[in-house]
Structure formats: structure tokens, C-alpha cells
Amino acid sequence: MRKVAGMKLTNRLVAFVTLIVVCAMFVLFIGGAISFRKLGTDFLSHYLSKVVVEIDHAIANPVSNENIGLWLPQLLKASDIVELEINSKTGLLYHYEQIQTVGKSLDLIVNRYDLPSNPGFFIVIKSVPPYADFAYSIGAMSSLSLAVLVIVLALSWGIRWLRTQLLGAELLEHRGRLILAGRAEEVHTGDEREWPATASIALDQMIAELREARQERSRFDTFIRSNTFLDKLTGAANRVMFDNRLQTLLQDKGAQGAVLMIRIGDWDTLVHESGKEGADEWVKEVGNVLSNAILRFPDAVLARYYDTEFAVLLTHQSAKDARLFATQLMKALERLTPPECLEEENWAHLGMTFFTTGERRGRLMEEADMAKRSAVLQGSNGWYAFKKDVVADDARGSVRWRTLLTRVFEAGGPDLYRQAVKDAKGEELHTELLARIKDENGLIIKASRFMNGIDLVGMNSTLDRRVVGKALHLLRTGDGREVLSINVCAESLGQRAYQTWLRDTLLQTPRSVLNRLQIEVSEAPLVKHFDAVRPTLRMVRALGCAVVVDQAGRSVVSTHYVKDIQPKYIKLHRSLIRDIHQRPENQLYVRSMLGACDPTPTQVLAVGVESQQEWKVLLQLGVMGGQGRFLGAELSSSPATRKRQRWRKQ
């Protein structure tokens, strides 16, 4: 992949032009200095040769030879000759040396001349170098100084002109850098000054087509997810999604709840008497009543199982609460006015059965269907529960939950278990901290069970504060390399008091610690409270913590949040992963989620990987990593407990 140049085009051209001009000035300066010195040396040699000729003539002439001691010193002093010696074969004949001199002996120029008129005689002259006594003079060097000033001014003007001419190219380059940084939406339309204009217009057109293609792909992905797991008429879950959730729940340890089947009449009769549109309107009206009724249960699933039959999955609810809900649901349905083809007192029938961990999904649906038929045989609107022993009937009211949770928080908060998240090569990406509490009997309760109690008594923010505090403590006291991920409720992130507390806590934490902390938020609550949660998540990202969205696919929602908050990871819900190698519809959903994250740096992870077949299919689909018992079991954060757990595993 090609790398982007670090220096701008204008700066590179300006640097090139400046370098060329400076190099030219340097060459001219060096050449002028050498020529100037050469001229001075040649002038000195020519002048000294004239002096030597006069001395040669004076020595050859007897009259002048007698007076040489009178006029020669004055001539030598005027000529800046420091020392002169006249020698012959017999020895030194004459020696002259100035008493005061400016130059040093090492700086003097030594020349030797033979006397042609006096064979055997030669003169050695030591003179001051040319221009040794001259200093820089503005007057003398005014022409050269003016030339340098003109060159500098011309260079400055040329650089400004060059920057002006290349401003359009620089704007185009800046726009390209923003596009490469993933901020194409900010520069979808270019500046009119961009140059070349054809490249700018072409870029505008390509970005517009890219935006349209992304929107179309987003609509197509949403369409795929909706048609795969949602009923087109009512917007509720369809049979595929309901079966996936129920099958996954039955394999979770400690799971319990109830399955309800609601029949609202015969579809063929409705269509024949009321028409297709009238039948659809009646089904939608009943679906709205059922949707409003299950709002009090955050984890409940409503599905249109058949044409005129709905199924409701209540998770982690006791038999007592399920029976109370069935009674309230039937009262809500009886307020509706059914079509004329249906009997007003005998059109709604509900069958219910209870389940615990390990039961078969097919058997449960048969029990719910048998209970529904028993309700139909009663001959009036009503419900009937399948008779079976309820092994786990943990009926907790708000008082019991508040008492238990208060005791847990007074003891320091929930225990944190660890589970590693690994990539395709088996290397650990990060470690997720899972909250666990113990009941009155010392049994461990998973978050999926006690979160209903947390919501019931309103202790979401209290739980999140304890979890964040414990995670930061583990990061400060750890080896400095481990990355921890914690779950935080979207409701807490939307509260002003919790936002202030979280901001102050993170600001007091070193950046090196925050870079190893990840905040996980469930997808459905995030989308529901997106406007309230978005500022907090952006603040968390700005402080150095990564944002992770988990339980993706638990409910079919829009993925517009991916582009807005740009989470580091999206974790797929375990119901999509369970037996994915045998479920093409789940594979289609995963492909759709991968497509939604493709234009962004967000990576997709799988949660609940239980087998080699699931892991192999997920890697083939393009999932970056996974989490589950196949890749690593849950371990307690307590060193002693972790050591004991590893020993048992071995």
C-alpha cells in the first residue's frame, strides 16, 4: 500500500525553488571570492616583479648600488614588504625587516626571484597577503549587497506568488487527507479554489456516488436483517428469531422463564370475512397490545409465530410473575373489539408453559401448544398453564432484591469474573470483566438474572460505579499490558449525575490506564437512549477509553450508531452464534453486520462460541475474533480462586 507524503506539495516546491536560488548564490559567491583572491595575488606578484627589476638594475649600476640603502627601505615599506633578503653564492648581502607588522609570519606570502642582470644573485621577499588590511565596507561592497538584497526580495515575492498559484492544489491535497482519514462526509463538496478543477469535480462526483452507495447498502443491510428476523406486518420478531433466542436461553446455566402462545382466531376465517387488509389490520392491532404489555420486561421477546398466533418468551421470571402477566395480558386483549366474524367472548386463547436450563425447545413448544388447545376447549377467552413441576422458582420481589443488592454493595460490590477475547490467531485482544453476585445461600447469580432486579430497584448507576472503580483498580495494580472491558448500562450513561462522576473519575486517572479500559454498552438500550448517551460516549473516547457495543443482533435495530460513535468492536449476541454452521439465516445476518461495519474501523466479534464448527464458520464469514467457552472459560478475578479454577481445569 502506498504511503502518503508527509510534506505538502506547496512546501516541497517552495523548498526546491529556495534551495536552487540559495545554491546559485552560494556558487556565485564562492566563484567571485576565488576570482577576487586570484586577481589580488596576480596584482601582488606583478608589483613585486617590478620592484625586483628595479633592485636588479640598481645592483648592476655602481652609482645606484651605493645609494640602495637610502631609497630601498622606503620603497619596501610603501610596498607592504615585511622582509627582504638579497643573497648570492657567497652569502647574505642585504637584509630588510619591518619592526612593526600587522600580519603574522605564518600568514605572509614568500616569493623567490632570480636577478637576470646579476647571475648568482636571488631575492627572497615576504609580503602581506592582498586585502589583509581591508574590512567589509558598505560603500565598497554596495553593488554586491544590493544584488543580494534584490535576490532575496525577488525570492520572497516568488514564493508568495507560488503559494498563491498552488493554493488550489493544496486545498485539494488537504481534502484528500481528510478522505483518507475517514472524514469524507465533512468534505463531500470541494472548495471552488481547488485546482485542478477537473480533479475536484471528479472527486465531488465520486463522493456523492459513494454516499449514495453507502446509504443504499445500509438500507439493504437493514432490509436483510428485518426480513430475516422480523415479521413484515407487525414488526415483531418472527419464528426464526424466537427459536434462536429460546434455544440459546435453554443452554444457559441458571436460565428459567415461561413461553406463552396466544391465538387470536382462525386466519382463513378472518381473510374470508374481513378481507386481507382487514385481517392484517386486526393482527397489527393485537400485536400493538402485546408489544405494549411486554415493555415491563426488558428481556422479553414477542414473535408472530404463525398467521394468527403470537409467542412471548419471558426470561428469568418466576412462575408466579408469569401467571400474573398472563392474567393482565388477557384483560388487555378483552378490551379490544374483535371483527364480526369472531365471537366477542371466545376469540383470544393463551397457553403457557415453564422452562429451566437443559430442556428441549421442541418439547417446550409442544407443551405451550397443548396448553393453548386446552384454553380453546374452555370455550371462552382465557389462559391455561401446562401442568409441570417448576424446579427453579426464584420469585423475588423488589424488597428481596433491594435487601440482597444492598448487602452486596455494602460488602464491596459484585465479584468480577474474567473471560478472554481472542482473535483468529488465538492471541488475546482484551479481557471482559463479568459481574457476578451471590444470593443468601451463596449461589452465584449471573448478570442476566440479577439485572432485572437492578432495574426493578433502580440501582443501575450504583452497580456501574462499583464496576468502574474495581476495573480501574485492577488496571493500576496490574502488569500494565492487560486491556479490560467492562459493561455499563445505557441508562446510567444518560444520567447527569453519573456522567459527572464518570468524567471526574476518568480525569483523575492516568492516560496510560485509560488506554487499556473499554466501555461496553448493549446495542438495544444504546439505540433507544442514543441522544442522551452519545455525548458521554464521545467524552469517554476523547479521554482515551475505547467504546464497545455488545449484544448486537439481540433485537433488530438500525446500525446508524456505528458511523456516529465509531465503536472499536461490535459483539454479536450469542443467539446468532449458537449452531451458526447449521443456520444460514444467522450467517446472512452476520454478513449484513459485517457489511455495515465495513466502511468504518469497527471490528466485529462473536460472543458465545461453543464449538470448533461455529468458530470455523465465523472466521470464514470475516469475524475478527470471538469469546466463549471454546476459546476460554470464565475465571474469577481473585488470584486464589483463579489458581483453583485452573487446577480443576487441568
Q: How many β-strand stretches?
A: 19
The CATH superfamily label of the largest domain reads EAL domain
CATH-scheme architecture of the largest domain: Alpha-Beta Barrel
Terminal CA distance reads 45 Å
Oligomeric state of this protein: single chain
- Characterize the main sheet: 8 strands, mixed, barrel
Runs in which pLDDT lies below 50 for 5 or more consecutive residues are: 644-650
Number of domains: 4
CATH T-level topology of the largest domain: TIM Barrel
**Could you name the CATH class of the largest domain?**
Alpha Beta
Percent helix among the residues? 40-55%
Count of alpha and pi helical runs: 23
Transmembrane segments: 12-36, 134-157
Domain GGDEF: 255-388
Pfam families: EAL (PF00563), GAPES4 (PF17157), GGDEF (PF00990)
Keywords: Membrane, Transmembrane, Transmembrane helix
Index terms:
disordered C terminus, 650 residues, Beta-Lactamase, five-stranded mixed sheet, alpha/beta, 23 helices, 4 domains, single chain, eight-stranded mixed β-barrel, Alpha-Beta Plaits, elongated
In short:
The protein is an alpha/beta fold. Helix content is 52%, strand content 18%.
Structural summary, described in words:
- This protein is an alpha/beta fold and 650 residues long.
- It has four domains: 9-127, Beta-Lactamase, CATH 3.30.450; 138-217, no CATH class; 230-385, Reverse transcriptase/Diguanylate cyclase domain (Alpha-Beta Plaits); 401-647, EAL domain (TIM Barrel), CATH 3.20.20.450.
- Helices cover 52% and strands 18% of the residues.
- It is built from 23 helices and 19 strands.
- The strands form three sheets. Strands 10-11-13-14-15-16-17-18 form an eight-stranded mixed β-barrel, surrounded by four helices. The protein has a five-stranded mixed beta sheet with strand order 6-7-5-8-9, with helices on both faces.
- α19 (560-565) links the parallel β15 and β16.
- α1 packs antiparallel against α3 (68-78) and α8 packs across α9.
- The radius of gyration is 46 Å and the shape is elongated.
- The two termini are 45 Å apart.
- InterPro entries: Cyclic-di-GMP_PDE-like, EAL_dom, EAL_sf, GAPES4, GGDEF_dom, Nucleotide_cyclase, Rev_trsase/Diguanyl_cyclase.
- It comes from Grimontia sedimenti.
